Amino acid sequence: MSEFDVIVVGAGPAGASAAIKLASAKANVLLVDRADPPGSKNVSGGVLWGDSLSQVAPDWEKGPVERYVEAKGVSFLTKDSRISIDFRSKKFGEYKSGYTVLRTKFDAWLAKKAKDSGAMVVSGVTIDKLSMKDGKAIGVEQAGETITADAVIIAEGANSRVAINSGIKKKPSDRHIALGIKEIIKLPEKTITERFGLSSAKMGFASEYVLGFLDGGVKAGGFLYTNKESVSIGAVISMGDLRNNNQTYSFNIIEQFKEHPFIAPLLEGGRVEEYSAHLVPEGGLAVNSIHGNGYMIAGDAAGFTFSNGLVLQGMNYAIVSGIVAADSFLQKKEKGIGAGANFSNYTDNLSKTFVLKDMKNFRGVDAVTWSNSIHQTIPAIAEEAMLNMFSESGEPKEHLAKILFKSLKERKESKKDLAMDLYRMMRRM
Ligand SMILES: Cc1cc2nc3c(=O)[nH]c(=O)nc-3n(C[C@H](O)[C@H](O)[C@H](O)COP(=O)(O)OP(=O)(O)OC[C@H]3O[C@@H](n4cnc5c(N)ncnc54)[C@H](O)[C@@H]3O)c2cc1C
User: Measuring CA to CA, how many Å separate 225 from each of 62, 68, 272?
Assistant: First the structure.
């Protein structure tokens, strides 16, 4: 007989949600995290979008959340300009947006919820791999010791030691992984509320940026989110560009972003409190199968993030996949199916949710996210069009279409590539 019903590897949003769900159903669960306390090595922008967490923690909005997003921005930054959409809506009350969260606090709170629900939570322990017997996972291995369980939920995030060591995931290529870097900058609560034009100290601003001006043409997306008394600012950088260019390092990308003429004033008077870096999966599903005999893979470990340059979501996908993995175990247990079961029901159940539907429908969106068109051509053309439209030269005015065509004609980039990227944008974004 196994020592545990389920071992959950990783106490991020995926693992903690799975553990809460399982423990609440009286399953015997071990939740293990390499960090002590759990979550202390985790990084997110981070806006927790939607309300998925209420399935396992109905009171989560009263937990350690920072500000409710009432204003969402998207900007293209060129060297001299910012071209933005600043979307604010009273309807963000009915259309759930999200709360900014600070992961060190938030993950510790979630792990405690798992413990309070009855899970055994062990922190500061790194699991090495699955323990396999006759093609079935019978538990996990740590420093040569085996801990047995009827099922393992691998929720170890993008840096997937267990899945890779167990031969169920390949090391990701540069195309399928990006580097996220983040700083937390301390500012007074009142300054944040006033500076970002927010209606109260409970309300927040969240914005993504296309950073089209970086040295060496490195492609990166920026983000800036307001917390109660700090802002989270950071960049997600193409790993290939980072490796292959000879002039820009990860740390000076965030510096260039912070020093941009239309970002620096937002940070004025702030003090850097925290600096962190983390991998971000790109391009959808990162494994051939998210289930096997005796195991399921949830969250970032499976590649469940949605990133298209305008939004970056992953925590909500992690939570839903963790809960569905837990449910799928409980389904098998109810039928009396014991250790090493084949969890194909996890794939079936997750296919009915937005997680696998989005992975399927938006497959290939990374080609758009990291295209030259998004990062260079479109911002440059938009900048020129805006300058033409919003200035007075003393000459007769031109139609917008003519301005755009002229600007496009003057640029060196391939028109065919731009047309292709625009087509992909229509199809995939
Ligand atoms: C810079 C940045 C900004 C982001 N912004 C957002 C955002 O605004 N909104 C959003 O929704 N998503 C955002 N994301 C994505 C989001 O952070 C992830 O999708 C989400 O954290 C995935 O949750 P997870 O539980 O799958 O993995 P993780 O949160 O990575 O948790 C994995 C856990 O497993 C533990 N672990 C790892 N290996 C082992 C091991 N071998 N043994 C034991 N424990 C182990 C880790 O310590 C960690 O606690 C961002 C990501 C980054 C990097």
Answer: 19, 11, 14
DSSP 65-78: EEEEEEEEEEEEE-
Q: Which runs of consecutive H residues, i.e. helices, occur in 296-371?
A: 315-334, 344-351, 354-361, 365-369
| Domains of the chain as residue ranges with CATH | 4-61+102-172+286-362 (3.50.50.60), 175-281 (3.30.9.90), 371-428 (no CATH)
Both tokens of 307, joined, read 């990133």
Atom of ligand 1 nearest to the CA of 299: 26
The SS3 assignment for 122 reads: strand
Q: Looking at residue 63, what DSSP letter applies? A: S
308-339 pLDDT per residue, tens: 877 889 999 999 999 999 999 999 999 988 88
Q: What is the CB < 6 Å shell around ligand 1?
A: 9-15, 32-35, 38-39, 41-47, 49, 126-127, 155-157, 161-162, 180, 182, 234, 236, 278, 280, 299-301, 305, 312-316, 318
Q: Whose CA is nearest to atom 46 of ligand 1?
A: 10
E strand segments, 124-257: 129-133, 136-142, 145-154, 177-186, 203-211, 220-226, 230-238
* Residue at 299: amino acid letter: G
Q: What end-to-end distance do the CA atoms of the chain give, in Å?
A: 48
CB 429 within 8 A of CB 308: yes
Residue 236 vs residues 177, 196, 241, 279: alpha-carbon distances, Å: 10, 23, 12, 9
Mean pLDDT of the chain: 92
CA nearest ligand 1 atom 21, residue: 315
Ligand 1 centre from 159 Cα, in Å?
9
Is residue 67 within 8 A of residue 199, CB to CB? The reply is: no
282, 173 contact by CB (below 8 A): no
Give me the percent of the chain exceeding a pLDDT of 90.
68
pTM of the model: 0.95
